[in-house]
Design brief:
There is one protein chain. By secondary structure, this protein is mainly α. It is built from 14 helices and no strands. It folds into two domains: 19-194, Growth Hormone, Chain: A (Up-down Bundle), CATH 1.20.1250.20; 210-391, MFS general substrate transporter like domains (Growth Hormone, Chain: A, Up-down Bundle), CATH 1.20.1250. Helices cover 79% and strands 0% of the residues. The radius of gyration is 20 Å and the shape is globular. Residues 1-11 have low confidence and may be disordered.
């Protein structure tokens, strides 16, 4: 039976949407993603201040992703008996503590400890976000609510890195993390006053995250997720070398293209809230095909700067639908165990991020950025075929 036509109700049916809580969740996402990727734009000053190499400073991002992956696999079971409102507030407190620890850090181990706390917050927040959103709005409004929550990712992509880099040169990197802590305080207050009590109602019939892989549709779904996110992060990691090398863009043009990517990504997230209510599987299939064709066009016409700019923006638009699309799919595939489903999705995405960066680097050394883009295009095509033929059928 198609997931798009099957009507599956959530374990608790919500009569009145709590949109204030949904937007508070989105602001929390904005704070988390801002904190996660700030070291990327502040790598050099952090390394200089602490007298470490930029490679060592870069491990602050790696440790966060690794801890987020591990957390996503266990957080649902560990917190199963706790009110979800309390759990989400605790994650936001971890964000604040992490940012303050980084701001006052005197050495690398202290920063790494802070980033471990952030990894727990990110892994936990992502894992539970779909299940909690399902408890904030009626079932027919879940896709729209998820698109709002995940718009926090796009806003952070647009604002955090360029603004962090710019302000870091003016007020210093430590003060940037103090501002991030202030963002966390605002998110905490907003969530405190808007999130309703959500006592645990788990009737999970599964043995946890990995137990879900016994379902055929989940195995195919996670395979498609790995292909899509591996393809995207290989593409995105080596986008700058391609724009500077093949497209011959200068620094100002490069900044504009990356800004266009971020803005298009935001609109893609908003668009997904509309499209997935029509058809989750067709939305994911179409976006994967768009990304596949875009990658092949960039490889073929990489020297045409306007076409490259349009292609990068189109990729951003299509990728913007992925978090909302896959989270909506999880909410329909396992509505009675969405927390475990969310954990499996987060762990799979984190694995794909690692694989995308690693495989992309290997391909880049062999064939350059064009080879990376070609491989990404092929992965997206395979993902589209997998979704259309296997994932859209439940069971």
């Amino acid at each position: 039976m198609s997931l798009d036509t099957e009507v599956i109700e959530t374990p608790i049916e919500v009569d009145k949407p709590a949109w204030g809580a949904v937007f508070a969740m989105a602001f929390g996402v904005f704070g988390l993603i801002t904190a996660e990727f700030l070291p990327v734009s502040l790598l050099t000053p952090i390394a200089d201040t602490l007298h470490i190499s930029e490679g060592q400073a870069g491990q602050t991002v790696t440790v966060t992703a690794l801890v987020a992956l591990l957390t996503s696999l266990v957080i649902g079971n560990v917190t199963r008996q706790l009110d979800r409102r309390v759990v989400m507030l605790a994650f936001t407190l971890l964000l604040i503590a992490s940012a303050l620890l980084v701001a006052f850090a005197e050495n690398l181990p202290m920063i790494l400890l802070a980033r471990v706390l952030l990894g727990v917050a990110i892994g936990g927040f992502w894992t539970l976000s779909t299940a909690i959103t399902m408890r904030l709005v009626p079932s027919d409004q879940v896709p729209r609510a998820l698109s709002i929550v995940f718009s926090g990712i796009s806003l952070a992509t647009i604002i955090a890195a360029p603004l962090g880099s710019y302000l870091g040169g003016i007020i210093g990197w430590r003060n940037i993390f103090m501002l991030t802590a202030a963002l966390g305080v605002l998110a905490l207050l907003w969530q405190f006053f808007t999130l309703p009590a959500m006592p645990p109602v788990n009737k999970a019939r599964s043995g946890g995250v990995l137990d879900l892989l016994r379902k055929s549709v989940m195995r195919w779904g996670m395979l498609a997720v790995i292909m899509m996110f591996t393809g995207h992060f290989a593409f995105f990691t080596y986008l700058r070398p391609f724009l500077e090398g093949s497209a011959q863009l200068n620094v100002n043009q490069l900044s504009l293209v990356l800004l266009a990517f971020g803005v298009a990504n935001f609109f893609g997230t908003s668009l997904a809230g509309y499209l997935v209510t029509r058809s989750v599987s067709l939305t994911l299939t179409a976006m994967a095909l768009v990304m596949s064709v875009t990658a092949l066009l960039l490889v073929s016409f990489g020297e045409v700067s306007w076409l490259v700019a349009a292609g990068v923006a189109l990729w951003g638009l299509a990728f913007g639908s992925m978090p909302t699309g896959w989270s909506t799919w999880i909410s329909r595939a396992v509505p009675d165990d969405a927390e475990s489903g969310g954990g499996l999705l987060v762990a799979t995405i984190q694995l794909a991020i690692t694989a995308g960066a690693a495989a992309g680097g290997w391909m880049f050394d062999l064939q350059g950025a064009g080879g990376v883009f070609l491989a990404s295009g092929v992965l997206m095509l395979l993902a589209a075929i997998t979704i259309f033929t296997r994932v859209r059928h439940h069971g």
